[in-house]
């Protein structure tokens, strides 16, 4: 399937198999199980026996089991536990036992209508998802474990999520999943506040995000400056999901557009909310970086209570994060402090900050369900708000001369353009300005320069309400309606609109971005017993979606053209004159959104889908899915998926899948409009990012955006030689066509161009200077390997040890591109900016009240591409980081943890590039680049160094 894969990955496959060793285990186990609900007793039984238990979730509701105390063989103990219940053993495997409903269920008749309803309701996930791993992502069957699936799924339990030194969800997944990565651009407009994640080296919006199996809405940010992989993408904001609210995370590493629809190309991430009742948990955490900055305060809590026969749970999190400073001084600022000591207090050291932004965030999740009529009503949703602040680039206020980068000569470090030239204020009757009258320069306000402060307030809201149950013929249904909105409001301070002259404010409201989505879904499932090794699981349904994108204009002064935004003629008393160039227009650092950029546009779609899966014979699973989706703007698309799993033995199986997929262009990509004004040869001009259907964009070749299309292949081997030892090796390939990107800037410079634009109805034809737009521009092929090996011991005198090795190899190659959109530098970064090898080796040891978690992470070398004039390409070496946490149970309800991330304080290589004289980007006298930075933004483990923390856990 993947040409030449055997030689490339043979060492990894051979090494993986070599690590597998079977272990003898005692025939009898010690059991101590109290009578209770089957959900709880089966979970405890699985943990005490070291065996996975797979049960039909919808048949556990209302079932109670007797208690067991003593030493028994596993199957004998299970038979005792199931006595008098409607459950029987269907199949015994090396690593798991599968239960089913008995042909004649020996269960007493319900004594009330409520009892009858409860036995038909779908069962919620057990408190410990790792003990009874009924996996739902990527399949609609409810009797699947990780190793039973035909496609690879990573399951992350609650404990793993909470035992991390990092706090935001994106960073947690980066630490736990080698194929997942997330970098935080330092000074990059909105991307600094909504860092873009990637899975398998593909853009953020190639990954579908679900909560409780329902599609989550996107962020309002279209990543116009999110780095080479994310540029132009629009995806869900993972930072809005608090770890305390999550019971488990399932990550499907395969295309699933035929099941879930648009975006599910690189994979699917499904967050399952907690449902445990009768408990109150609280976590208090403090940490900071070894460098002494970046202080982090976190308070999180969870409360779950029974609501009649249902439940309600609330989880919340508050974070307060300080800034980090990992840059040095800008050369221009260094020279000003040296040559103009009177301004030293006005020019910080360093003058600007490149690191984590100042951030505060509050997040809340609600989850509830209760019996209603013959089924169950459920409701979940979130409310979140965060405020983040970071600086833009420093605007230098003075011209200074000093050493060049090579230290062999001198160069001019000029002041920021379009801000500081002197302007004249008194106008003569002829419209000219009086050269002998009053004058003004912004050096009176900012003598040495200024540092704009960029602030974003993010509001995130969602709600999903639904009803699910089963009809008399066992047809299960799930009807739901979801609404979600994400809003990004921008402000900028400590800046100015130079064109307004002395009347300019120093702070501005820039405008607001908003993404709105609504989903109406009907899911139906029926298990048809045809006499095969398993019933045929038939699922089908329909979905109706509406999504809209809006840009609200900022305050007028943030984008307006002031009197000094155009060139002025300054006249002397003798009649001689000179032309003074116009000053910069709009809030400096980020001009406000003008009314011409304001939009509110949306689109609708509907989908029909079907999914069939069954075991036609023992050991063989076959499945297929088909989905047709029709969009109001670009038409329809039909996608399919086929998958299979074949058990060679009871501990070894082959699995694989092939599918097609698509990603519909988002309303943000379809309708984003960004217009700023600039001076070109003393004439006011527009620089515009336009929708593809805009006449000016069409003049330069824009066409209607098409959906991105993919073909996915995955093939793997699953090994379970022992109930406590599992391994898998999966090869994959993703062919992605019609990828969407931003075009280069097209220059409007001739009268013929302007006349053609006028005839096309472009009202701003006389002002346009540069145009760019979203377009289908390139195609890629991604190939890779995932290896997963995990082992856990039983509880013994030496405690319990869980170890895992996760390895990912990923390589993307561009197979076709439009050079006007994807230039050589971006093409190189798309292919080389992500480490091709990434791996983690982790161990978790527990003994009574003590727990130790350790992890080693490996990041292969990678290359950052740049123009020769910027120093050229830079190869960064491979790196290791190590994390460690130790926790002690002080009382049955109190635990104290201490730990560190990157405990050996490792940093990536410095951003020192050299293509030979004079193309050198590193300034030796400051030890920085021209912008004062020291590291590339794309470092896969960041560049903040070591971090330590303490956490106090209360469970009541």
TrEMBL record:
Gene3D superfamilies: 3.55.50.30, TonB-dependent receptor, beta-barrel domain, TonB-dependent receptor, plug domain. InterPro entries: Beta-barrel_TonB, Beta-barrel_TonB_sf, Plug_dom, Plug_dom_sf, Secretin/TonB_short_N. One of its GO terms (biological process) is iron ion transport. It comes from the Bacteria. GO terms for cellular component: cell outer membrane. Keywords: Cell outer membrane, Ion transport, Iron, Iron transport, Membrane, TonB box, Transport. Belongs to the TonB-dependent receptor family. This is Secretin/TonB short N-terminal domain-containing protein. It comes from Sphingobium quisquiliarum P25.
């Amino acid at each position: 399937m993947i040409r030449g894969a055997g030689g490339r990955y043979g060492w990894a496959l051979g090494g993986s198999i070599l690590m597998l060793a079977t272990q003898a285990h005692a025939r009898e186990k010690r059991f101590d199980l109290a009578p209770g609900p089957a959900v709880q007793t089966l979970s405890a039984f699985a943990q005490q026996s070291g065996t996975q238990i797979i049960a039909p979730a919808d048949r556990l509701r209302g079932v109670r089991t007797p208690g067991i105390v003593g030493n028994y063989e596993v199957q004998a103990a299970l038979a005792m536990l199931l006595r008098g219940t409607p459950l029987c053993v269907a199949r015994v495997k090396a690593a798991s036992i599968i239960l089913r409903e008995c042909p004649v269920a020996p269960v007493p008749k319900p004594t009330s209508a409520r009892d009858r309803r409860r036995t038909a309701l779908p069962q919620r996930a057990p408190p410990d998802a790792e003990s009874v791993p009924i996996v739902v992502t990527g399949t609609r069957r409810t009797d699947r474990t990780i190793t039973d699936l035909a496609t690879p799924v990573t399951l992350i339990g609650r404990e793993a999520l909470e035992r991390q030194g990092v706090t935001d969800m994106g960073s947690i997944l980066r630490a736990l999943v080698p194929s997942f990565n997330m970098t935080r651009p330092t000074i990059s407009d909105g991307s600094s506040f909504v860092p873009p994640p990637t899975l398998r080296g593909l853009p953020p919006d190639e990954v579908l995000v679900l909560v409780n199996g329902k599609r989550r809405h996107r962020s309002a940010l279209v990543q116009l400056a999110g780095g080479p992989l994310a540029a132009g993408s629009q995806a869900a904001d993972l930072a809005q999901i608090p770890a305390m609210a999550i019971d488990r995370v399932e990550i499907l590493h395969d295309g699933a557009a035929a099941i879930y629809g648009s975006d599910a190309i690189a994979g699917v991430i499904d967050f399952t909310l907690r449902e445990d009742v009768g408990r109150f948990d609280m976590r208090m955490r403090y940490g900071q970086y070894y460098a002494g900055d970046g202080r982090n305060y976190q308070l999180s809590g969870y409360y779950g209570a029974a609501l009649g026969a249902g439940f309600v749970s609330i989880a919340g999190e508050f974070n307060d994060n300080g800034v980090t400073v990992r840059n040095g001084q800008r050369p221009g600022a260094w020279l000003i402090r040296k040559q103009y000591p009177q301004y030293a207090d006005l020019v910080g050291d360093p003058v600007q900050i490149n690191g984590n932004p100042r951030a505060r965030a509050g997040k809340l999740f609600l989850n509830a369900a209760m019996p209603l009529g013959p089924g169950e009503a459920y409701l979940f949703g979130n409310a979140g708000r965060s405020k983040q602040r970071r600086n833009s680039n420093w605007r230098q206020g003075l011209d200074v001369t000093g050493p060049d980068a090579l230290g062999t000569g001198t160069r001019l470090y000029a002041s920021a353009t379009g801000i500081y030239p002197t302007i004249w204020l008194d106008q003569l009757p002829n419209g000219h300005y009086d050269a002998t009258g009053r004058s003004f320069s912004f050096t009176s306000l900012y003598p040495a320069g200024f540092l704009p402060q960029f602030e974003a307030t993010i509001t995130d809201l969602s709600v999903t309400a639904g009803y699910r149950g089963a009809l008399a013929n066992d047809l299960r249904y799930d009807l739901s309606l979801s609404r979600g909105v994400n809003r990004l409001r921008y402000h900028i301070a400590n800046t100015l609109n130079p064109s307004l002259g002395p009347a300019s404010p120093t702070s501005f409201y820039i405008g607001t971005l908003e993404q709105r989505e609504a989903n109406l879904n009907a899911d139906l499932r029926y298990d048809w017993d045809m006499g095969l090794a398993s019933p045929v699981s038939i699922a089908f349904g329909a979905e109706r979606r509406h999504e809209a994108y809006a840009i609200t204009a900022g305050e007028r002064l943030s984008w307006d053209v002031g009197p000094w935004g155009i060139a002025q003629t300054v006249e002397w008393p003798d009649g001689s004159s000179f032309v003074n160039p116009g000053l910069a227009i709009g809030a400096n650092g980020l001009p406000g959104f003008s009314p011409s950029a304001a939009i509110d546009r949306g689109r609708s779609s509907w989908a029909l889908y079907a999914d069939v899966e069954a075991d036609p014979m023992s050991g063989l699973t076959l499945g297929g899915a088909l989905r047709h989706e029709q969009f109001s703007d670009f038409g329809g698309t039909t996608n399919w998926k086929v998958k299979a799993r074949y058990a060679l033995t009871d501990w070894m199986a082959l699995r694989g899948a092939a599918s097609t997929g698509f990603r519909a262009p988002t309303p943000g990509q379809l309708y984003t409009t960004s217009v700023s004004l600039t001076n070109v040869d003393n004439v006011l001009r527009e620089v515009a990012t336009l929708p593809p259907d805009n006449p000016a964009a069409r003049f330069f070749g824009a066409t209607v955006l098409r959906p991105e299309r993919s073909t996915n292949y995955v093939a793997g081997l699953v090994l379970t030689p022992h109930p406590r030892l599992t391994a898998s090796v999966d090869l994959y390939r993703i062919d992605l066509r019609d990828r969407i990107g931003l075009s280069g800037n097209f220059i409007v410079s001739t009268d013929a161009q302007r006349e053609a634009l006028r005839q096309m109805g472009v009202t701003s034809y006389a002002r346009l200077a540069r145009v760019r737009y979203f377009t289908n521009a390139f195609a890629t092929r991604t190939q890779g390997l995932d290896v997963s090996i995990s082992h856990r011991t039983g509880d013994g005198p030496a405690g319990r040890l869980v170890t895992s090795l996760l390895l990912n190899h990923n390589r993307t190659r561009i197979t076709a591109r439009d050079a006007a959109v994807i230039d050589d530098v971006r093409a190189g970064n798309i292919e080389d900016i992500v480490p091709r090898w990434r791996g983690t080796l982790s161990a978790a040891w527990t003994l009574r009240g003590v727990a130790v978690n350790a992890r080693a992470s490996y990041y292969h070398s990678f290359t950052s591409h740049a123009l020769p004039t910027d120093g050229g390409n830079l190869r960064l070496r491979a790196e290791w980081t190590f994390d460690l946490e130790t926790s002690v149970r002080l009382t049955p309800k109190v635990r104290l943890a201490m730990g560190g991330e990157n405990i050996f304080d490792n940093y990536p290589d410095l951003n020192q590039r050299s293509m030979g004289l004079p193309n050198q980007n590193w300034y030796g006298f400051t030890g920085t680049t021209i912008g004062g930075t020291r590291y590339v933004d794309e470092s896969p483990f960041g560049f903040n160094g070591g971090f330590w923390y303490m956490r106090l856990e209360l469970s009541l």
